[in-house]
Write a structure and sequence with these properties.
- Helix content is 40%, strand content 20%.
- By secondary structure, it is an alpha/beta fold.
- The longest helix is centred in the middle third of the chain and has 21 residues, at 299-319.
- It is globular, with a radius of gyration of 25 Å.
């Protein structure tokens, strides 16, 4: 689904680009966050999913704020006030013939939407505010962090360098990271991005909150990486007739994470009816296979083996009744009608990888996916994260896979739990293999004690810091790593050493401590 055309509204002497999608019974104006690009949105599966959901029940009005995307840039020497930028909403509504609309303000778009609702109550049907705030420095960035962000933008804008600030959970997704870099470049130049950051730093709409009379829904992710969740709690206390719903997740953009959950809340709030489950979504088992070069092969040899494995992967998936669903670098996703087929395919692929001379790690999960097109959304992201957590030769699956494959002859060993940003509760895991490749579903009675040499130098550093009682965040800060990377190191340590918990890892470190640690 793509909009037919982009048009321009005149706001003062500035041209504001807008698009209209859908033919629902109510008008919904989407006020975007920090940067946007009307055309590029449709190239990201998450953004497309969000817009498709919103336009299914509304006439969705989209626009690029002044200074971003397809709209005119601003004079960096005379930055416009929030009131001037807010009036762009009115200009777009006038151009589209919308007399009264609901406003969806996301992130930096939320203060604009709040100011519009207080200024034009007769034109505001309702407010839906996602990841919003009333005061930038209090709930987004203090002045010193803002200057550091601007310094990064001055030297690295357009490379995707801001991604960890907005969506740290997608940093290891190469496809999304590449799109994000283009999103930066095509949404604003470095100069424009810095101007936008300085404009946003001036935001303070605390004084208008009591004047908002429109019914208001507030949505905020509990562990939002960019905007403190306390920002929406403050709004809920100050805006009359408002309601706050906190959802799971850490990534900030509205088009990441559990998009359907956010869209469901907005649809029910604006229409009074729960969203109807789409017939195009079906239950499926996903298998993500990750290969990597543990032997440090030369580029040519690695390329040859990688291509050979990908050919084997396609044949093997087909023979097990699956369908290839896309490749992303060294990540390969396949879709199956049932989890048993996915697990058996994974076991065959593990053996094939060993024969070819590459290392493999695989994740299997079950959930709803789109009937048409490549799998996207929460199910796909969870499966990719399982593959990222799996160790060499492992087939790591969710407990649901084991439950649904009961009686299949497969064996599953408990593999603990992991916390994922987008899930409310830690996900129960199992190690899975088929009866031809597995030992019985119990741990061997006798096993040689793990040796410290099994760990890499970095993993040894991490296990030492675990023994010191440090959290993942503290370890990440000390070693200059992301928390996500530390989580992967911890998972690998527990798997390599066959340990059940961090406490056991700390005890291991103490037992093997030498003059320089384990």
């Amino acid at each position: 689904m793509r909009p037919i055309e982009t048009r321009y509204a005149l706001s003062g002497d500035v041209r504001i680009a807008y698009q209209v999608v859908g033919q629902g019974s109510l008008d919904l104006v989407f006020v975007p966050g920090f940067i946007s690009n009307l055309d590029l949105h449709w190239e990201d599966e998450g953004y497309t999913r969000l817009l498709k959901r919103l336009s299914a029940f509304s006439r969705l009005i989209l626009f690029d704020k002044r200074g971003t995307g397809l709209s005119d840039r601003v004079d960096v020497h005379h930055l416009p006030s929030l009131e001037t930028r807010m009036d762009d909403v009115r200009a777009v509504m006038d151009a589209t013939g919308s007399g009264r609309a609901a406003l969806l303000g996301a992130s930096e778009g939320a203060p604009m939407a709040m100011l519009f609702a207080a200024t034009y109550p007769e034109r505001t049907r309702a407010l839906a505010l996602y990841g919003g705030y009333a005061h930038f420095h209090k709930w987004v960035m203090p002045p010193e962090r803002l200057e550091a962000f601007i310094a990064t933008a001055e030297t690295a804008w357009g490379t995707g360098a801001t991604l960890p600030h907005f969506a740290p959970g997608r940093v290891d997704d190469p496809r999304f990271a590449t799109w994000w870099a283009r999103f930066e470049r095509l949404s604003a130049s470095p100069t424009a991005a810095i101007a936008l950051a300085r404009m946003n730093a001036a935001i303070d709409v605390r004084g208008v909150l009591a004047a908002i009379s429109a019914p208001t829904l507030l949505i905020h992710r509990r562990n939002d990486a960019r905007v403190d969740p306390e920002a929406s709690r403050f709004l809920a206390r100050k805006i009359p007739n408002s309601r706050l719903v906190e959802v799971a997740g850490r990534d900030h953009p509205i088009w990441t994470g559990d998009i359907d959950r956010v869209a469901d809340l907005i649809e029910e709030f604006l229409t009074g009816a729960r969203a109807v489950a789409e017939a195009e979504r079906v239950l499926a088992a996903l298998l993500v296979t990750r290969i990597y070069d543990t032997a440090r092969l030369g580029d040519r040899m690695w390329s040859e083996r990688s291509q050979r494995f990908q050919g084997t992967w396609r044949l093997t998936v087909g023979r097990h009744g699956g369908r290839p669903a896309g490749t992303h670098g060294e990540l390969m996703m396949a879709r199956f009608d049932g989890p048993a087929r996915a697990v058996r395919c994974a076991a065959t692929l593990r053996d094939a990888a060993q024969e070819i001379g590459v290392a493999s790690a695989q994740g299997v999960h079950v959930g709803e996916v789109e009937l048409r097109g490549p799998p996207t959304g929460l199910t796909a992201r969870v499966t990719m994260q399982l593959a990222a957590h799996a160790g060499r030769g492992d087939i790591l699956a969710s407990r649901l896979v084991a439950d649904l494959a009961a009686g299949s002859g497969l064996h599953f060993n408990d593999a603990g739990r992991i916390a994922l940003d987008e899930l409310d509760e830690p996900l129960a895991l199992v190690q899975a293999t088929s009866e031809q490749h597995l030992e019985p579903a119990c741990r061997p009675k006798a096993k040689a004690a793990a040796e410290p040499a099994a760990l890499t130098a970095r993993e040894s550093e991490v296990v030492n810091l675990i023994a010191d009682g440090k959290s993942n965040a503290a370890i990440a800060a000390e070693l200059g790593l992301s928390e996500h990377t530390v989580k992967r190191h911890v998972a690998n340590i527990l798997l390599k050493l066959d340990l059940p918990s961090r406490a056991a890892a700390a005890a291991f470190s103490a037992r093997h401590a030498g003059p320089h640690g384990p």
